[in-house]
Design brief:
The chain is an alpha/beta fold. The protein contains 16 helices and 13 strands. Bound molecules: uracil and calcium ion.
Length: 434
């Protein structure tokens, strides 16, 4: 078999076989195929698309290009969750301890943030002492012992995706549904969980800006999972406005702790975390329906057991467990700068992309992989869509260390708030379930 023949076949719109995709992914992982052939293949796949069977075969081939984690030594139902990424999306930090406290086994490998969306690892590492670099044996032992671990994805997991993704990023081939769904699902398949809930974001702050595209991506990922024998559901959730009110790394840990402590009841982050947990429990046969799972999750949250589970996880990964009861121990920014309403009126929306960019300008995110983030900085929103505000009411507090880009960050926050003279209806948070 030769890479050039596979590229030609895809260029001409033909369907590739499982053997051809396996050859190509193995050659990619083993560095036997050069960058220029990989990029030609990716562009052909981007322009020609892929059938469902082909996308599933690509996913299996990618997952098989490296190590696959065997979770069979862990008793119980192994669950995982993936979010397509958003602003103020702290659901993993709420959901992982919550699902574990409900009896699921959460063996989660996570990534770092890039661009305006945050990454779970960066958030967790803002907890003093906490490490996300566990060996495979430590990872399995921790999940067996306490039911939850969140660690960084090892470089041996899906090496074909690491090369594909880096090349897609610089060749305008990221936003292809078969390439995104095989990329996401190959990592979920290799990480080994039986039940997987997907949180597919839709709106200004998301990868997929329209409901129609989000639905296509969700269907594609659920289809792959089911073809590969996993229990998978996707929940399409709104990302026009930030999910949480806290945007920044330590700030998002603080918000997750507060939710697990019984605060912020009824807020979007609280709601989405419970909905996702309900689905996860149903997929793992720990509840009969997602609705029953959600009721169970809410009761467990209220009992305080999920907060204790978070403290256990922090301690097991070398962090200071006192953080769970005293978020003041997290890194704090030197300055807090309040921004106030310039006028009276109804807040009709808070643009997630603008808030994400503001947090990034303050140092909470990366523009390139090598950038160093400041765990303490970010934006805390005080006002949300649907509220009537008076001139001078608090809109947001910026948590600042380096003032270099403060002016620009302030302009993004100002611009993020949309105003109306009439009351506006709130957008539905959970758009669809696939
Ligand atoms: N996240 C991934 O892991 N892969 C993609 O292709 C897009 C988002
Ligand atoms: Ca975020």
């Amino acid at each position: 078999m030769r890479a050039i023949d596979i590229i030609r076949k895809k260029r001409d719109g033909e369907e590739l076989s499982a053997d051809e995709l396996t050859f190509f992914c193995r050659g990619t992982a083993e560095q036997a195929i050069p960058d220029y052939q990989i990029t030609a293949f990716l562009m052909a796949a981007y322009l020609r698309g892929m059938t469902d069977a082909e996308t599933a075969a690509l996913t299996i081939a990618m997952a098989g290009s490296g190590e696959q984690i065997d979770l069979s030594s862990i008793e119980g139902v192994k669950v995982d969750k993936h979010s397509t990424g958003g602003v103020g999306d702290t659901t993993t930090l709420v959901l992982a301890p919550l699902a574990a406290a409900c009896g699921a086994r959460v063996a989660k490998m996570s990534g770092r943030g890039l661009g305006h969306t945050g990454g779970t690892l960066d958030k967790l590492e803002s907890i003093p002492g906490l490490s996300t670099r566990l060996s495979r044996d430590q990872f399995l032992a921790q999940v067996s012992r306490i039911g939850v671990a969140v660690i960084s994805q090892t470089p041996t997991l899906v090496p074909a995706d690491s090369r594909f993704y880096a090349l897609r990023d610089v060749t305008a081939t990221v936003d292809s549904i078969p390439l995104i769904s095989s990329s996401v699902m190959s990592k979920k398949i290799a990480a080994g969980a039986q039940a997987i809930v997907l949180d597919v974001k839709t709106g200004r702050g998301a990868f997929m800006k329209t409901l129609e595209d989000s639905r296509r991506l969700a269907k594609s990922m659920v289809d792959i999972g089911r073809r590969l024998g996993r229990s998978v559901s996707a929940v399409i959730t709104d990302m026009e406005t930030p999910l949480g009110a806290f945007i920044g790394n330590a700030l998002e840990v603080q918000e997750a702790i507060e939710i697990l402590s019984g605060k912020h009841v009824g807020t979007p982050l609280w709601e989405v975390s419970l909905v996702l947990c309900g689905h996860l429990l149903a997929l793992g046969n720990l509840a009969k329906t997602p609705a029953e799972g959600r009721v169970k999750a809410e009761a467990v949250l209220r009992s305080g057991a999920a907060l204790e589970k978070l403290a256990e996880m922090i301690e097991a990964q070398g962090g200071d467990p006192r953080v769970a009861h005293d978020p003041g121990l997290l890194p704090q920014a030197g300055d807090r700068i309040e921004m106030r309403a310039p006028r009276e009126g109804w807040c009709s929306g808070v643009d997630a992309l603008d808030i994400g960019r503001a947090a990034m300008l303050l140092g909470a995110g990366r523009t390139k992989k090598e950038d160093v983030i400041d765990p303490a900085v970010g934006v805390v929103l005080a006002a949300r869509a649907g509220q009537l505000l008076r001139e001078g009411d608090l809109l947001a507090t910026l948590h600042v260390n380096d003032r270099t880009s403060l002016g620009e960050a302030r302009r993004f926050v100002e611009r993020a708030f949309q105003w109306s003279d009439e009351p506006t209806g709130a957008r539905p948070l959970v758009r669809e379930v696939v």
